[in-house]
Amino acid sequence: MTGALHRASSREFAGTIEAAEDAEAWLVSQSGRLGLAENTRFAINLCLEELFLNAVQHGRANRATVSLWTEADGVRVEFVDDGRAFDPTVVHSKRISGPSEDFTIGGYGTGLVQKFSKRMSYRRTEGRNCLLLEFGADSGATAG
User: Fold this and answer.
1) How many CB atoms are located within 10 Å of the residue 124 CB?
2) Are 34 and 68 in contact (CB under 8 A)?
3) Domain 6-136 carries which CATH code?
4) Which of 28, 86, 124, 137 has the fewest CB atoms within 10 Å, i.e. the most exposed one?
C-alpha cells in the first residue's frame, strides 16, 4: 500500500467472548463511518471475529486492542492481544477438501484470515501479539 496513513480509530476491549461481540459492533460502526466498501467491511469483520475469539479461547488473552488506519488505496487493521505467543503468518492452515460433513471443525481460521486480507505481518512485542492486516479499498479478497 502506498500513500499517507491516517489513524482512524483505536479501542481496547476485555478478553471475553462478550467483548468480541462489542468489538465487532464497534468495527461495523467505524467501517461505516469511514465509508468502506461492503466487501472490505465483511472481510475485516470476518478476520476480526476469528482473531478475537482465538486470542480469548486459545491464547487466554485478557485484553485486546483494535486499531484502524486508512490510506488512499486501502485500510490497515492492527489486532494486539496479551495472550500466548502465536504467529498466524507461519501456521499451516487446513483446507477443506471434501463435503462439509467429512471435516472436523477447527484449524481453518488462519486460512480465512490469509484469504480475506491482502497481506498480514506479525511481531511479538512486550508480551503482546501484534498482527497487522491490510485490505484493499474496495475488496477484502486477496489478489492471489
Assistant:
1) 11
2) yes
3) 3.30.565.10
4) 124
Alpha helices in the chain (DSSP H): 17-34, 38-57, 109-116
Q: Which of 84, 82, 103 is nearest to 94 (CA)?
A: 103
pTM here? 0.81
Q: How far is the C-alpha of 120 from the C-alpha of 114, rounded, in Å?
A: 7
CA angle 47, 135, 27 (to 5 degrees): 50
> Can you read off the three cell numbers belonging to residue 55?
486470542
Distances (CA, A) of 14 to 29, 54, 64, 143: 19, 14, 6, 33
pLDDT in tens, the chain (144 residues): 455 667 679 999 999 999 999 999 999 899 888 888 899 999 999 999 999 999 999 999 999 999 998 887 889 999 999 999 999 988 766 555 555 555 455 555 677 888 889 999 999 999 999 999 999 876 544 443
- Where are the domains positioned within the chain? 6-136
